[in-house]
Amino acid sequence: xxxxxxxxxxxxxxxxxxxxxxxxxPTLAQLAGAHVVIRMHGPVPSADLLARIRRGxxxxxxxxxxxxxxxxxxxxxxxxxxxxGAGGQPPLLIAIDQEGGGVxxxxxxxxxxxxxxxxxxxxxxxxxATGRYLHGLGIGVDLAxxxxxxxxxxxxxxxxxxxxxxxxxxxxGVAFAQGLGNGGVAGTVKHFPGLGRLGRSTDYxxxxxxxxxxxxxxxxxxxxRAAIAGGVPLVMxxxxxxxxxxxxxAACSPAIVNGLLRGTLGFRGVTMSDDLATRGVSPWFDxxxxxxxxxxxxxxxxxVAGNGGSGGAAVGDQAYAALxxxxxxxxxxxxxxxxxxxxxxxxxxxxx
Length: 352
Description:
This protein has 352 residues and is of the alpha/beta class. It is 44% helix and 11% strand. The protein has an eight-stranded parallel β-sheet. A two-stranded antiparallel sheet has the order 4-5.
C-alpha cells in the first residue's frame, strides 16, 4: 500500500508540474512574452513562430489581408491557439484592422466607411455586426475605431475618420466601439492622443504635433475622453511626438501614457502601442529599446510589426529579448509587469 501511495504521489506531482500554474504566478519569461504583439508574414505560420508561441514569447498576433488563407482565417487562428495550448500558455490575443472603408482586411462587415456611418445608431449596428463576424472567426480584438479628428482634408487620416467634428467623432466612434463589444469583440480606439493634425503617417516618418495642451484638450482628446467614459476596453497610443507633453514618441512617454491617459483621463483598461518598428520611432529608439520604454511608460501590449516582410520576425524577437533582459535586470519591476499582465489576462478572458 505504501508503494502504491508513493507511486500515486509521484504521478500527481508530475501532472501538477506539467500543467498547473505556479503558485508564485507567471515566470519573468511569461510576463515579458505576454506583452509582445507581432504581425504574421504570409498565410502559413513558420515553425519558428509556432515554437515562439509555445514558449510564451508572443502574446498576440495581428492578421493582415496577405496572412489570411484562401479558406478564411479560422483554421489559421485555431492553429495559432493550438500552439499556445501545447506550450501551456494562455490563449493568444488575435487582432485585425477592420475599420471599414479603405482599411478592412476581411470582406465582411463593416459595409460602410466610418464617414458613411451617419448616426450613432448606424455606427453601433455596424460595430455589432462587425463584432459578431470577427468573433465567429476566432478574432477577439478589432484595431478600430479611429478616433482621430482631422483638421482638414489634407490630414493623412482624413479618409479613415468619422468626421472633422469632434462631437461627431465622439458619438459615432464610441457607438461603433460599443457595438463591437456587444458583438463579442474588444474595440481599440486609436491613435491617442490624436493624429488628426499630421499630413503624413508615422509609419513612414516621424511626426510632430505642435499643438498646445489647451488645443489638444479641446479637439483631439475629446473623443478619447468620451470613449473612456463609455467603457472602451483598449486604447492604442500613437507614435507621434507632442512637445507640449514630451520629446519622445507618445507610446514611449510616461507623461502621455501614465500621466495623461491613465492619470488625467482615468483610463483603467489595456493600453497598446502603435507599431514601434517604424520610421516614426527609429530616429529615437530601435525596436528593443522602444519596447522597454513603452512598457515602462505604461503600455501593456507592445506592437512590433516592422514592414511586414522577413524583418518583422526579427523585431519581434528583439522586442521580447529586450523585455526579458529589462525584467531580469530590474529595469522593469515585476510588480509593474504583473499588473500589466493581469490587465491583459482579464481582457483575454472577457473576449475569449
